[in-house]
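hey so i finally got around to running both of the ones u sent me last week. sorry it took forever, my laptop kept dying halfway thru and i had to restart like 3 times lol. anyway pasting them below in the order u listed, first the sequence line then the structure token line for each. didnt double check formatting much so if smth looks off just lmk and ill redo it

first one:
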Amino acid sequence: MRRRPMWLLAGVFLAFATSAEGPSADEQAVWQLEQDYWRYVSAGDVDSYVKLWHDDFVGWPCFDWKPARKGDIGKWVRDIRDNRWKLTYQLKPLEIQSFGEDTVVVHYAAKYVYDYGDGTRSGVD
């Protein structure tokens, strides 16, 4: 069985390490997954977004009233796609840290704005 770094998304404000030698290959790979996450959300790419999650995933989406499993986690991305909303975002890496061979924690700040196409906007601008 191939070991992959386990990555954690610790909410909207998460971190990017500044070490003398720079981020490791695992740390760079996890940061790329975070960038992919936002790119897929912005594009409304539900299939690619859902593939990022482990098959046994369970979490609590920000805009839902209950926890969701992998089969339901893409609902908000589907809403972006189906409603043709535009999501713009900017990521600011802050810290990244590896803990052994199978855990990497990434922290970054995310600014994002929904444009609903009818003149209304929401988010952190």
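and the second one:
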Amino acid sequence: MAASGDLHCSPQRERQVREALEGVAQEADLLLLAGDLTSLGEPEEGAALARICAEIALPTFAVLGNHDWHANRRDELVAELQGGGVQVLEGGAAQLEAGGHEVGIVGTKGFVGGFSGHSHLDDFGEPMLRALYREAGRDVEALQRGLQQVALCPLRIVLLHYSPTRETLVGEPDGIWVFLGNDRLAAPILQHEPDLVLHGHAHAGTFAGAIGEVAVRNVSMPVLRAGYELFELQPRGHASAALH
């Protein structure tokens, strides 16, 4: 499986992104994209990435990131991506056979909120702040539902944009962690123990972290310093990563 995030694709960056993903079809059975697929969420930016993914011709799953929502043209953007064979998961789950194994993929963007013992957004105060808290809660609920849907899959992967753990944010300024993820996403992960959790968003963060025994990997391109990361998943639930 290959994973990447924060491609920030656009017509101007199309060649750069194509070169970054070159060869992935020869190395992987599946491609997962952890949000910020585009620079500003414009449909023509999605079309540029769709052209690349159509050429790669791997089963490709993605979640949207904050950049992908910037233009507030979600429906048009998703339609362009789907035209290139990219399945966008927004609080949903997908199951497929890859590499001879049944794989369950649960995808949702995640949201801001912070972490206990650090900057942390609570359900208190002005209505606008409480609305942020509720929005984050909807992603937590979606993650819970998705993990229930794929509970019987031998291999289960969670795909996010925002981080569910502080460990993969180390390297980012402490003051912005509240905008890079939230620890409420960790509860369904701890309960269901998927085989691997992937996210992006934290460009200056850390590659490897964990929630309990579950491996969490920050696959933001700036962190990887490469176009993608390769993972080999075994049905027993053990994940091993090899840098590309």
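quick thing i noticed on the 2nd:
The first helix runs from residue 14 to 20.
anyway thats it, ttyl
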